[in-house]
Design a protein that fits this description.
Strand content: 5-15%
CATH architecture of one domain: 3-Layer(aba) Sandwich
Number of helices: 5
Structural class: alpha/beta
Helix content: 40-55%
Oligomer: single chain
Number of strands: 5
CATH topology of one domain: Rossmann fold
Order of helices and strands: HEHEHEEEHH
Radius of gyration: 14 Å
CATH superfamily of one domain: Class I glutamine amidotransferase (GATase) domain
């Protein structure tokens, strides 16, 4: 995927949408677009070193499950993607809805 110019161009074309989100090592695709240069981001703990070595202009955050910098939201591993989804629910329709959703799916919602 990181070599797919059509996908990178599509992401860049839509860079001003409300949110661009990445779960786990999908962050590498965003890294390839350059959109994260100078911004904070996170990924799965096993991919942090790869991110730091290959994308030195990204401010890699190793703590935290969900990191937002401008309209770019990144998360750690797969379960952190659930945290990111609940974070988006909270941002778009409120904390009560996010808490209710977390309870419904029996998930402990934490961002750290």
């Amino acid at each position: 995927m990181i070599k797919n110019k059509k996908i990178k161009d599509w992401i860049i074309k839509h860079k001003n949408i409300e949110y661009i989100c990445s779960v786990c090592s999908g962050l590498i695709i965003l890294g390839e677009t350059g959109l994260l240069n100078g911004k904070k981001a996170t990924t799965h703990h096993l991919a942090l070193k790869v991110l730091q070595e290959n994308y030195p202009d990204i401010q890699v955050v190793s703590e935290g499950k969900v990191i937002q910098d401008s309209n770019l939201i990144t998360s750690g591993g797969v379960s952190s993607g659930i945290n990111m989804g609940l974070y988006l629910v909270e941002k778009t329709i409120g904390k009560t809805a996010s808490e209710r959703t977390a309870t419904t799916i029996e998930f402990e919602y934490t961002l750290h």
